[in-house]
Write a structure and sequence with these properties.
Two copies of one chain form a homodimer. Chain A is an alpha+beta fold and 215 residues long. Chain A contains nine helices and four strands; from the N terminus they run E-H-E-H-E-E-H-H-H-H-H-H-H. The first copy, chain A, folds into two domains: 2-80, Glutaredoxin (3-Layer(aba) Sandwich), CATH 3.40.30.10; 87-202, Glutathione S-transferase Yfyf (Class Pi), Chain A, domain 2 (Up-down Bundle). In chain A, strands 2-1-3-4 form a four-stranded mixed β-sheet, with helices on one face. Chain A is globular, with a radius of gyration of 17 Å. The A-B interface holds A 48-49, 51, 57, 61, 63-69, 71-72, 75-76, 87-88, 90-92, 94-95, 97-99, 101-103, 105-107, 112, 115, 120, 122, 126, 130, 133, 141, 144-145 and B 48-49, 57, 61, 63-69, 71-72, 75-76, 87-88, 90-92, 94-95, 97-99, 101-103, 105-107, 112, 115, 120, 122, 126, 130, 133, 141, 144-145.
Chain lengths: 215, 215
C-alpha cells in the first residue's frame, strides 16, 4: 500500500497510528499542504478532493477520508481490533471518534484557516483563538462523555485501544499545535498520556515524521 | 427508541432517513436549536455535548453523532443494507458520507454561524457566502469522486441506497437552505432527485417535520 501523507495532517496522523497498531507498512509520499502541493495535477489524479490522507491499495484502488480508512483497516486486518464487539459499544466508540473527526478538526484545516485569513481578513491572534476554541470544544465534549461513564477504562472504551483513542490522540496533538492546554480535560489528558506511551502512537507523532521541520 | 430531533438539523435529517429506510418508529422530542434549547439542563442530561441527534435506546442508553447512529442502525437492523458487502466498497461509501459529515456540514452548524456573527462580527451576506462555500465545496468533492467512477450507479454506489446517499441528500438540502444551486453538480443532482422520489427521504425532509415553520 502507498500512503499520501503530510507530517502536520491530523487526519493522516490517525491513519498512521492505525497502520502502526496493525503492523502494516506503507510506501509513503509526502504532499506538502502548507506549500499547496495538494493542488498539483499528479496528486489531484490520486484524490480529486486534494486532501490527505489517501491510501492506495496494491491493485490501484484509492481510499480516502480517515474514518473510512480506519474502518477499512480494521475490517481487513481484524487484530488488534479497534472496535468493540457489541453494537452499542461500537456506536459509542464511533461517536467519540466522530467528535474529533467531524466536530473539532474540520474547523481548523488549512483550507479553513486560509479562508479566515484571506477571505474574511481575520487577524492571526483571532485565528489562533478560533482554532483553540473548536479544538478545545471538541475535547471538552469528549471529556463530558468519558469522564463519568463507567464504559471508560484505561482508554476511552474499556482497557483496549479503539478508534476513539486514535482520534482522541490526534485531537489532543492538534490542540497543542494551536496553544491549547489540558487543565480542564483530566480524563482526556490521562488517556492521551497512556496512548503516547505506546510506540504505535509515539512513532506516528507529527514531529517524528521525516518531512517534519527539524527542531 | 426516542429521538431528540430538530427540523433543521442536517445530522438529524440523516438519522430520520435511515430510520425510515429501516422502518423503525421512534418517539420524537423536539430540541429547538435556534432558540437555544439544547443548553437546557434536561437535554444536557441526555447529551452533554448539547447537540442533536441523540437516540435513546429502550434500555436508556444514549447514542449520539449521526454517523455512529447510522452504523448502529445498519448493524441491528441489517435490511435493507446501507453498506455494501465488500471492504473496499464499504470504504468508498463511508468516505463519500464523511465528505458531507466531516468536511461540509461542520462548517455551517448553528454554533459556528453564531461564532462568526458574535465573535468575529462577520456580516450576514459574508456568513451566507461562507456557508455556501463549504457546503458547495463538499458537494463538489463528492461530484469529483462519483462523476466518472464506474462504481457509481443509480445511486452513489451501484443501484442500491447506501449511507453515502443518505449523507448526500442531507448535504444537498442544507446547501439549498443557504441559497446554493446545483448547475455544477450534475451527478449529485441526479442522485439527489432519485433519492427524493423515495418516501423514506421525502418524509424526512426538514420542511415536512411537525416542528418546521409553517409555509
Amino acid at each position: 500500500m502507498q500512503l499520501f501523507t503530510f507530517w502536520r495532517s491530523l487526519a493522516t496522523l490517525r491513519v498512521r497510528i492505525a497502520l502502526n497498531l496493525k503492523g502494516i507498512k506503507t510506501e509513503n509520499h509526502v504532499v506538502d499542504l502548507l506549500a499547496g502541493h495538494q493542488a498539483r495535477p499528479e496528486f489531484k489524479a490520486v484524490n480529486p478532493q486534494m486532501v490527505v490522507p489517501a491510501l492506495v491499495l496494491d491493485d490501484g484502488q484509492v481510499l480516502f477520508q480517515s474514518m473510512a480508512i480506519l474502518e477499512y483497516l480494521d475490517e481487513v486486518q481484524p487484530q488488534p481490533a479497534l472496535l468493540p464487539t457489541d453494537a452499542v459499544g461500537r456506536a459509542r466508540v464511533r461517536a467519540l471518534a466522530q467528535i474529533a473527526v467531524a466536530d473539532g478538526h474540520p474547523l481548523v484545516t488549512p483550507r479553513v484557516r486560509h479562508y479566515l485569513e484571506h477571505d474574511l481578513h481575520i487577524s492571526e491572534p483571532a485565528r489562533q483563538q478560533w482554532s483553540r476554541h473548536w479544538m478545545g470544544g471538541a475535547l471538552a465534549a469528549m471529556e463530558g462523555h468519558i469522564a463519568k461513564d463507567k464504559a471508560t477504562g484505561l482508554y476511552c472504551h474499556g482497557d483496549q485501544i479503539t478508534l476513539a483513542d486514535v482520534c482522541l490522540a490526534s485531537q489532543v496533538i492538534g490542540f497543542g499545535f494551536f496553544g491549547g492546554t489540558m487543565e480542564a480535560l483530566p480524563t482526556v489528558a490521562r488517556i492521551h498520556a497512556r496512548c503516547m506511551e505506546h510506540s504505535a502512537f509515539a512513532n506516528a507523532h507529527p514531529l517524528k515524521q521525516p518531512d517534519a521541520p527539524k527542531p
